[in-house]
Amino acid sequence: MLWDSSPGWGFSRGKPWIAFGASPETTNLEAQRPDRASPYNFYRQLLAPRRGRAAFGSGSLQFLATDTPEVLLYRRDSAEERYVLAVNLDEH
Model pTM? Predict the structure, then answer.
């Protein structure tokens, strides 16, 4: 993610090795931070439950069987916590 709308988008004024993508003036952190519906804030909320939880930082990981190939099911454990997570990878 680009940092801001300054020249070089907060990285460098040198020539980038890869294009920044469409609309860098609106897809940078500075522009997205205040917008509660932005992709930046979506991923921030998505990752928030992981912060400070031992099960996600240093706990064990076990993938669980499912009858639906579009669903990723797994468990994270630590001595104090256990979480079972289901991720729907289907397009719909």
Answer: 0.61
Residues 18, 7: Cα–Cα separation, whole Å = 16
Work out whether the CA dihedral 48, 87, 54, 80 comes out positive or negative: positive
Per DSSP, the three-state class of 64 is strand
Tokens 């930082």 locate to: 57
Alpha-carbon distance 3 to 40, whole Å?
11
Q: Which residues make beta-bridge pairs with 82?
A: 77
Residues of 13-24 as b/e, b for ≥16 C-beta within 10 angstroms?
A: eeeeeeeeeeee
Which residue is listed with tokens 């294009």? 19
Sorted by sequence, the CB contacts under 8 Å of residue 7 that are 6+ apart come out as 13
- In whole angstroms, how far apart are CA 56 and each of 21, 43, 72? 32, 16, 16
* Tens-place pLDDT, residues 33-43: 999 999 999 99
